[in-house]
Amino acid sequence: MSSGSEEKSASFPGELARELRQFTGLSATFFRAASARAGMTVTDMQVIDMLDSAGPTTAGQLADLTGLTTGAITGMLNRLEEAGLVRRERDPNDGRRVIVRLVPDKEEMHKVGSIFDSPGKAWSEIASHYDEEQLALLLEFLKRSSKIYRKEIIRLREAPESEGGMYSAPLEDLETARLVVSSPVSRLTARAGASRGNLYQASFEGPVPDVKVRDGIVTIRYPRRIWALTGEKRAAEVKLNSTIPWQIEIQGGAAEIIAELGGLNLTGLEIKGGLGMSRVELPVPSGVVPIRISGGALEISVRRPAGVAARVHLKGWASTFIFDDQTFSNMGNDVRLQSAGYEATAPYYDIEVASSVSMVTITSR
Questions:
Q1: Does domain 3-127 correspond to CATH entry 1.10.10.10?
Q2: Does residue 76 contact residue 68 with C-beta atoms inside 8 Å?
Q3: Do 189 and 238 form a contact (C-beta atoms < 8 A)?
Q4: Can you name the residues that pair with 201 across neighbouring β-strands?
C-alpha cells in the first residue's frame, strides 16, 4: 500500500465522524424548521415522528428517546391528546402500561406528513444507487449509531451537572422529589435552599460519590469500601428545592447527620444504619409525616416547630429518653407516647425509633 493510500485510509474514520456530526446537527436544524412550519414545538414534532416511524410506543420509551423526564413527557402527551393528535390506551397484555399511538386522520397530521415527504423521497432516490449488500451494511451502521445515541441520552440525563465542585440538576416540571443516600458517609448535611430553578445542589468533601438523577429521584452512592477503617472522609452537603414535596432516605449509616429541614415540604424521613450523632430540625408538616430511625446510635435529636404535635413509638432502647418536658432513664420495649394537643386528624409527626441509643431527644422548639 502506498503512503498516499495509507494517509487516506487513516483519515477516513475522522472524516466519517465529522460527517456524522454534521448530519446530526442538520437533522436537528431540520426538526426546528419543520416544527416552526407546523406550529409545534421541536419535541412535539420529534414525538410525532417517532410514533410515525416506530409505531405505537409506551410513554416511558418516548421519555427515554427524547431525553425528557416522565413528568415532562406526560405534560406533552396531555397537550397532544387535547389537540387530537395522539391517543393513549391501556396495553391489553399489561394493564400497567400505557400505549401511545397517532390519530392519523387529523388535518394537522397530513400537514406534518407533507413536511417529511420531500426528504423521504430523496432518501429513497439515494438508496436506489446501492445494492442490497451495501444497504444492509448501511442499515447495520445506522442501527448501531442509534444505539450509541440512546445510551448517551440516558447517560446525560442521569449524570448531574457540576460547576466549580457544585452538583445540580434542573427542577423542570417535577411535582415531587426524593433524596436517597444509599451508602455510609462521615457527615451528611441536608437542608432546604437550592437556588431557583434547581431541583437540588450538592457539594462534597473527600471522594466524590456517584450522583444520579432520574424522574425526581436524587441518588448519592459512594463506592463500597470500608471507609471507617481507612479514615476516608466522606462529607456531603445537599440543598433541596423547597417548592416541591420531598421524601428523604438515608441508608447505610453516618458518623454525623445534620438535617436542617425548616421551610421544606417534607413527606417522610427514614434513617437506617449505625449512627454517631443525628440532629434533625423538622419543618411545619402539611399532614401526617412519618419519621423512621433504625440502627444503633450514640445520640438522636429530633426537634419540631412549636405547637406541632407528635406521636412517638420507641421500639428500641434508650439510656436517656427525653420527650418534650418528660425525661426517662433506661427506657424501651415498645413504648408509645404522644404530645399534648395531639389529634389524629390534625397534621403531626409519627416518629418511630427502632434503635439502641445512648440518648434520644424529641422536643419542640
A1: yes
A2: yes
A3: yes
A4: 168, 239
Nearest to 161 by CA among 172, 145, 176: 172
The whole-angstrom distance between residue 79's C-alpha and the CA centroid of its chain comes to 23
Task: Spell out the alpha helix ranges (H) of the chain.
Answer: 3-38, 42-54, 59-66, 70-82, 107-127, 132-158, 227-230
Distances (CA, A) of 45 to 13, 36, 54, 249, 292: 32, 10, 14, 39, 46
Whether the predicted pLDDT of 340 surpasses 50? yes
238 DSSP β-pair partners: 190, 202
- Tell me the pTM: 0.62
Confidence of residue 38 (pLDDT cuts 50, 70, 90): confident
Torsion from C-alpha of 125, 128, 133, 134, nearest 10 degrees: -50
CA–CA gap between residue 118 and residue 313 (Å, rounded): 70
Instruction: State how far the Cα of 244 lies from the Cα of 181, in Å rounded to an integer.
Output: 19
Nearest to 203 by CA among 217, 216, 227, 220: 220
Place of cell 472524516: 15
Angle between helices 42-54 and 3-38 (to 10 degrees): 110
Q: Tell me the C-alpha distance between 266 and 241, whole Å.
A: 11
Give yes or no for a contact between 155 and 149, defined as CB atoms under 8 angstroms apart.
Answer: no
Phi-psi region at 216: left, alpha or beta (left = phi > 0; alpha = psi -120 to 50)? left
- Picking from 178, 181, 245, 184, the residue whose alpha carbon sits closest to that of residue 217 is 178
Helix (H, G, I), strand (E, B) or coil at 23: helix
Among 215, 183, 185, 210, residue whose Cα is nearest residue 199:
215
Q: Count how many Cα atoms sit within 13 Å of the Cα of residue 149 in the half-sphere of its side chain.
A: 12
Which residue ranges make up each domain of the chain? 3-127, 161-364
pLDDT in tens, 51-62: 888 888 888 778
Question: CA 147 → CA 41, 64, 295, distances in Å?
Answer: 25, 12, 44
> Alpha carbon of 234 to those of 89, 261, 347: distances in Å?
47, 21, 36
